[in-house]
Write a structure and sequence with these properties.
It is an enzyme of class 1 (oxidoreductase). It contains eleven helices and 15 strands. By secondary structure, the protein is an alpha/beta fold. Strand 12, helix 8 (about 250-255) and strand 13 (about 260) form a beta-alpha-beta unit.
Length: about 325
């Protein structure tokens, strides 16, 4: 097999595309020939040693993938050689094959393209869990999505629209705002050239958004929270801007608002039945054309450094996918 190996997490430049021996298959796991893998923001952080999880060295990065089962481990039921699957495995995706726990694998229905499947589980799982479970989003409510042109942001736009909500998409350029409109956003705010609070006040007639979906953090968080509607729900998804904001808790009191943490990965571990049901619903939405991953670029696996460079420059709209021939 070949894989991008991280022996020293000092940055993307230290990764090496290496020939490695195929690992033995543990009980309870599947061996998967990887057809496609997608880039998520934690993939960049983990090779920079900035992520909350510090895997033992050396490791192969890559959290999300899709491919074909080539071997079934002892004790595994419900999977067969030749079956198409997707998985959010945490590590090992930037390679030609991986061994992963069968519990992490999602069987793919016919017609689910590998490139789409590799960009599906994390972003759509996170966004559905956030909006539908944690925020209990209702038809007719208004959702503000920060970082709306990114992977989770584009998924959140589609899920919120499928749920009957009004979507205000906030992004960092006019081009990204236009991309959000093509996905169904009802209005957009370019927060590099427009005042976020003024824009929200105008677009909501002073009421504010009912739900705020925030994967960005940083200096946008307090501005957004100050604009939230009465009984609003502020969803803490992540901190793509790099800094964790310190929010004045009196804002929650004054607005009767809820500050809601969203950790889809832990939800999937603690509530696997509910997670499986959710992923099944999302797969049906995909089959019905309600949702579809936005792919910024599809590149050969050997071009992982170029993909990381595009992500680091914040040029990505949707997700970058790497494929094996």
């Amino acid at each position: 097999m070949k894989a991008w190996l991280c022996e020293n997490p000092v940055g993307v430049e230290a990764l090496q595309w290496r020939d490695l021996p195929s690992p033995p298959l543990p009980a309870g796991q599947l061996r998967v020939a990887i057809r496609a893998a997608s880039l998520n923001f934690p993939d960049l952080l983990i090779v920079q040693n900035k992520y909350q999880m510090k895997p033992p060295l050396p490791f192969v990065p890559g959290t999300e993938l899709a491919g074909v089962v080539t071997e079934v481990g002892e004790g595994v039921k419900g999977f067969a050689i030749g079956q198409r699957v997707a998985a959010f495995g945490g590590l090992g995706g930037f390679a030609t094959e991986v061994c992963l726990p069968a519990l992490l694998a999602m069987p793919l229905p016919d017609g689910f393209a590998f490139e789409d499947a590799a960009a599906f589980i994390c972003t759509y799982g996170t966004s559905h869990h956030a909006l539908m479970d944690r925020a209990a989003l209702q038809p007719g409510e208004t959702v503000l999505i920060l970082g709306a042109a990114g992977g989770v942001g584009t998924a959140a736009i589609q899920i919120a629209k499928a749920a009957g909500a009004r979507v205000i998409a906030a992004a960092g350029s006019d081009a990204k705002c236009e991309a959000c409109k093509t996905l169904g956003a009802d209005a957009t705010i370019n927060y590099t050239t427009q005042n976020l609070r003024d824009g929200l006040k105008t677009l909501t007639e002073g009421k504010g958004p009912d739900v705020i979906y925030d994967p960005v953090g940083g200096d946008l968080a307090e501005l957004a929270f100050r604009s939230i509607a009465w009984r609003g729900r502020y969803l803490v998804i992540g901190f793509a801007q790099g800094s964790i904001p310190a929010l004045p808790l009196n804002l929650a009191l004054l607005k009767g608002a809820s500050l809601v943490g969203v950790f889809w990965g832990e939800f999937a571990k603690r509530e696997p039945g509910r997670n499986a049901k959710m992923l099944g619903e999302l797969a049906a939405w995909y089959a019905g054309g309600k949702i579809k991953p936005v792919l910024d670029r599809v590149l050969p696996m050997e071009q992982l450094p170029q993909a990381f460079a595009r992500m680091a420059a914040r040029e990505v709209v949707g997700k970058v996918v790497l494929t094996n021939a």
